[in-house]
Amino acid sequence: MKLICNQRVFSACINTVQKAVSSKTTLPILKGILIATYGQQLKLVGTDLEIGIENYIDAEILSPGAVVLSSRILGDIIRKLPDADIEIEVDDNNTTTIRCENSEFTLVGQPAIEFPELSRVEEEEGYRLPQDLFKNMIKQTVFATAVDETRPILTGVLMELQEESINMVALDGYRLALRQANTRNSHNNKAVIPSKTLNEINRILLEEENTDVEIFFTDRHVLFNMNKIRVISRLLEGDFINYKQIIPKEYKVRAKVNTKKLLNSMERASLLAKEGKNNLVKFSIRDEIMNITSNAEIGKVFESVSIELEGEDIDIGFNSKYFLEALKIIDSEEIYLEFTTSVSPCIVKPVDHSNYTYLILPVRLVG
Amino acid sequence: MKLICNQRVFSACINTVQKAVSSKTTLPILKGILIATYGQQLKLVGTDLEIGIENYIDAEILSPGAVVLSSRILGDIIRKLPDADIEIEVDDNNTTTIRCENSEFTLVGQPAIEFPELSRVEEEEGYRLPQDLFKNMIKQTVFATAVDETRPILTGVLMELQEESINMVALDGYRLALRQANTRNSHNNKAVIPSKTLNEINRILLEEENTDVEIFFTDRHVLFNMNKIRVISRLLEGDFINYKQIIPKEYKVRAKVNTKKLLNSMERASLLAKEGKNNLVKFSIRDEIMNITSNAEIGKVFESVSIELEGEDIDIGFNSKYFLEALKIIDSEEIYLEFTTSVSPCIVKPVDHSNYTYLILPVRLVG
Question: Which residue from B102, B272, B305 is facing A102, i.e. has the nearest CB?
């Protein structure tokens, strides 16, 4: 195998596939990246067996072949080379020589045959989403997945693909995030995608409007195709919770509030809340003012935020962390907070559209 | 005590004195910052008993007083407040109320009387240095101090203050850094300043040319006065090594090389050097070329850098870490590398001036 490629392009490609490589793996070959010629292109692959990332780049292929090289060392070396042509040559023992201007590296490679093949997902009957929209949908849901593994299905995000819309839902027993988008799809499907996969996809997705990601499913895997980059991940097995029955249809109290002002006040209140237990902050909603208070041994805080209120006064307590995380990812200038009683869930919704719903359970106030 | 000050100014001031506060202290009062009125100014003080930082800011003092507040909590709160006026009020129990727009914090304070006084250093017979020059002198020496405490004196930097110059010297048994500056001083002195103190000073010093730092010594302490900020530190006790006798006066081989090109090549070579033992890189100096090589189990590297050579060919080995750290802080475009034999020290010097000398011991090559 022998080829010439550009340092910057090669380095960016290594950086992409490295996201799937785990340094903690017990299988040494998985610490490597597969580098293989593919027609007149170069293909790089990294995988931890749960998720696999393939990236194709243009290269001048002088003779075909494949090799596996240490992901960490290769990445470090290529990053440090000048922005110039790099020549890569692999001999029959997988010994790899990398030449660039006045530098020559010789690395011990491993045989490509030992590198595991990624699961096959046929690119038929897929779904299409603009990359920037998908990025936003991930951002607004993935943070609400469960961290602990006691109910593995909750560590993923449910994707419901329907003829006229795509819903993404995450919940962890304390809060729920639901993002909806209108799309046209030829058929229905649903699947639960691991949060780790979505976090990596989020880093790869572009913020430009005019490029789409294509999504294909099998019973056990999902493929995301983003032009030159393909990500293949296993799906989580099992049934997701029937989330629709958790979301209340009605409310008794509704407060309209400026998102940024509430976020700032909550951030300050949480400085003391996190010193105490439960991150507890209390809301006292009265007429045109919402007071936020929190107590800890070291001191207390009192914040007030102006609101527009429909309905009666209410006192209710929350874990500030769950509120803050939602306020940070809502782009709208104003939100509604909808309450029924001080022991029933609060719904957070943007004022200007209805594609996002966040539910948060209250903390019962004592006394 | 009651006063009004600006959020941005107060926050920057907390940030400065926090550098002296250690979160690991066993004396609870030292986790706090002393806040005291001082005429029509506000004084903040942080200390870990080794180093103390005082910072004065303008404030509207409504009634005098002093209190000690948790450094971490106070810093977090003030940083999160809006850029507006902050009112601070302390009652007889040291309970402190902080008001700013729609926020009100009440914090438990500690009595100022319990806060340790910083050591006194009279501001007489001092030395003056432009802040940007002192910053540069610290940067070019402090990295070469010893990390381990087996010889405590080597964890500091020797300052030699002479009538026409100031020298700063650091060494750790493997390398030595000497920075000289021409200044006019009224008297001679020398002292060894802990590297931690210099690192904190470096973060406080400005990069502007026209402000000076004033330096005052007692037998056991040093005071750095930078306008509104005063840093007081203990000195290291004991005699510094007679460093002048370590630096060779002559050389047999001298190579002139581009600093940045050598740095880049060394950084790449060290990627493999650090995989092996000792960070070993080998220089082969021949005519107009210096080859840099390194070997590890996973592979090897060959770099070549063009040089101008005076004297004979030489082969010599180094710990790449000690070379890299010096190359990173030399501002000159070109340097001289001066050698005598392959087992004697190498001297690194800027080509364009003589105020910096770096000495590095070679690693004996086997075979």
Answer: B305
The domain A247-360: what is its CATH number? 3.10.150.10
SS3 assignment, position B89:
strand
Q: What is the pLDDT of residues A76-112, one digit of tens each?
A: 999 999 999 999 999 999 999 999 999 999 999 999 9
Q: Which listed CATH number (3.30.450.20, 2.40.440.10, 2.40.50.140, 3.10.150.10) goes with B2-114?
A: 3.10.150.10
Q: How far apart are CA A174 and CA A189, in angstroms?
A: 27
Chain mean position to CA A171: 14
CB neighbours of residue A357 within 10 Å: 18
What is the C-alpha separation between B349 and B273, in angstroms, rounded? 24
Please, what is the Cα angle at A171 between A167 and A174, to 5 degrees?
Answer: 145
Å between B10 CA and nearest CA of chain A: 17
Question: What's the pLDDT tens digit per position in A284-324?
Answer: 999 999 999 999 999 999 999 999 999 999 999 999 999 99
Domain-by-domain residue ranges, chain B? 2-114, 127-244, 247-360
How far off is chain B from A26, nearest CA to CA, in Å? 18
Tens-place pLDDT, residues B20-72 = 999 888 899 999 999 999 999 999 999 999 999 999 999 999 999 999 999 99
Nearest CA in chain A to B272: A73
Q: How far apart are the first and last CA of chain B?
A: 75
- Could you tell me the end-to-end alpha-carbon distance of chain A, in angstroms, rounded to an integer? 75
Q: Classify domain A127-244 at the CATH superfamily level.
A: DNA Polymerase III, subunit A, domain 2 (3.10.150.10)
CA gap B290, B315 in Å, rounded: 10
Q: How far is A9 from chain B (nearest CA, A)?
A: 19
CB contact under 8 A, B268 and A298: no
Task: Return the bridge partners of B334, or none.
Answer: B258
Structure tokens at A363: 């903390």
What burial class does residue A120 get, using C-beta atoms within 10 Å of its C-beta: 0-12 exposed, 13-18 middle, 19+ buried? Answer: exposed
Q: Which residues of A touch B267 (CB under 8 A)?
A: 80
Record: contact B104-A77, CB cut-off 8 A: no
3-state secondary structure at position B335: strand
